[in-house]
Amino acid sequence: MEIKVLHNILEANDRAADEVRATLAGAGATAFNFIGGPGSGKTSLLERVIPRVADRLRVGVLEGDIATTRDAERIAALGVPVVQLLTGGGCHLEAAFVARGLTEVGLSGLDLVLIENVGNIACPAEFDLGETAKVGVLSVTEGHDKPGKYPLLFHEVSALVLGKIDLLPYTDFDMQAFEADFRGLNAKAPFFPLSCRTGEGVAAFVVWMEQVHSRETDFGRGYGQQ
Amino acid sequence: MEIKVLHNILEANDRAADEVRATLAGAGATAFNFIGGPGSGKTSLLERVIPRVADRLRVGVLEGDIATTRDAERIAALGVPVVQLLTGGGCHLEAAFVARGLTEVGLSGLDLVLIENVGNIACPAEFDLGETAKVGVLSVTEGHDKPGKYPLLFHEVSALVLGKIDLLPYTDFDMQAFEADFRGLNAKAPFFPLSCRTGEGVAAFVVWMEQVHSRETDFGRGYGQQ
Questions:
Q1: Beta partners for residue A138, in sequence order
Q2: Model-level pTM greater than 0.90?
Q3: B191-193 and B159-163 as β-strands: parallel, antiparallel, unpaired?
């Protein structure tokens, strides 16, 4: 008789994430998981990024929220396919939910999938969604002391966006202290200070996203990945 | 034979919260649970409030964080007793941990206990800590669309602080839309727009805190509560 083992939630999530990864690879799509606090500027960043790539890359969006379709409505206004993933209370997205979202959003026709996680910098960092890269989103008004206080996210990200730099003159944000704190947790991830209000710095972040996508798809072709 | 029942985490927390409530009542102390996103200004608010009440009320602080003692160090500089509660990854405080913190901070000598939750507006709202009142802390740079997107917190709070109003001229925060969204979830809780940078609005919030404390202690005396 086979013994049934109920795996814990993170193990179950990891299996679902592996399936998402295989699905993305099969479709030749690259997925970015945007993680940041409530009001850090994740949706505004997507609103800036999408028009810059839409002429050459097909983009779909999964919008994670506890409640309302407000963010999906903002994205739909840009004319790209979007699915709102409502957790109904849950403070993070999980991979099985993302898998359903990929089906709904029409993955087969997409190059990039932008996943906006629930506004929270604690738990979302613990859950692998099968994404190609995690992008941390912090804003200068949240203060320079955040990396050490929420270390997992800053350790896990493949890139870090520091938004709202147009507000730097009105805050006491210490850029040197911030970078030192972040680099103590993550030596490699590129760092993109930018402003979604003025557009400053957005182009460099978009170039990075396209590089990640090119690398993934070239790698997929060259080495026979799924 | 007695059957052992393992209650779920929220039920276990509720029992611990009832114990915290009884302990606070026995000590004649009033506890405020400050809940807000990372960088919303919770610690800055405590830094503004404490010097305003320290001449007539004895204050102790429990600082909830995932990692580092940065916030407790800021509070210790004000000369009040403080205990850092490190969750080591957990995205919220639970009542049993607060109970230990109350012992460590020296509850018997205190009038007010200020509990700063982990920076997160999802899960902390689900966990009763046995506090007298939950205080929501949002800042204008997080945007006016937050109440509907994180409804439980805004529904649960006994008061709402909207901080960083000195930055209002540099944002597109819509105060009317915000208040309408908040009032749709919570008709009664007083609302305190303020700036910890300039000090504007802090006095009104402190008056409210003292009223809550007076009401609690009068009620305790008058009606024979523990």
A1: A162
A2: yes
A3: parallel
The fold adopted by the segment(s) A9-219 is: Rossmann fold (3.40.50)
ipTM (interface pTM): 0.91
Q: What is the pLDDT of residue A7?
A: 58
Distance CA B14, CA B192 (A): 29
C-alpha torsion B44→B48→B49→B54, nearest 10: 130
**Using DSSP, how many helices (H) and how many strands (E) does chain B show?**
8, 7
Tell whether A146 is within 8 A of chain B (Cβ): yes
Instruction: Judge residue B79's burial from the number of C-beta atoms within 10 Å of its C-beta, 0-12 exposed, 13-18 middle, 19 or more buried.
Output: exposed
Q: Where along chain A do its domains lie?
A: 9-219
Pairwise CA distance, residues B171 & B41, whole Å:
17
A91-123 in b/e form (b: 16+ CB < 10 A) is bbbbbbbbbebbeebebeebbbbbbbbbbbbbb
Q: What pairs with residue A35 in β-bridges? A: A136
pLDDT tens readout for residues A178-214 = 999 999 999 999 999 999 999 999 999 999 999 999 9
Q: Does A123 touch chain B (CB under 8 A)?
A: yes
**Contact of B202 with B49, CB cutoff 8 Å:** yes
Question: Which of A37, A91, A151 is nearest residue B38 as measured by Cβ atoms?
Answer: A37
Q: Within an 8 Å CB–CB cutoff, is residue B66 touching chain A?
A: yes
User: Look-up: residue for tokens 């590129």?
Assistant: A190
- Contact across the interface for A120 and B120, Cβ inside 8 Å: yes
- A12 interfacial to chain B (CB closer than 8 Å): no
Side chain identity at A178, as an amino acid letter?
F
- Distances in whole angstroms, Cα of residue A59 to Cα of each of A20, A44, A75, A76, B86: 17, 16, 11, 11, 40
pLDDT along chain B (226 residues), means of 10: 66 95 97 98 98 97 96 97 95 96 96 98 96 98 98 98 98 98 98 98 98 84 41
Cβ-Cβ pairs closer than 8 A, A with B, add up to 111
Residue A205 to residues A161, A208, A214, B13, Cα–Cα distance (Å): 8, 5, 14, 43
Q: Is A177 within 8 Å of A144 (Cβ atoms)?
A: yes
pLDDT digits (tens, 9 = 90+) for A49-90: 999 999 999 999 999 999 999 999 999 999 999 999 999 999
Neighbours of A168 (CB within 10 A): 15
Q: What confidence score (pLDDT) does residue B222 get?
A: 40
End-to-end CA distance of chain A: 35
Cβ-based burial of B1 (10 A; exposed 0-12, middle 13-18, buried ≥19): exposed
Q: What is the CATH number of domain B9-215?
A: 3.40.50.300
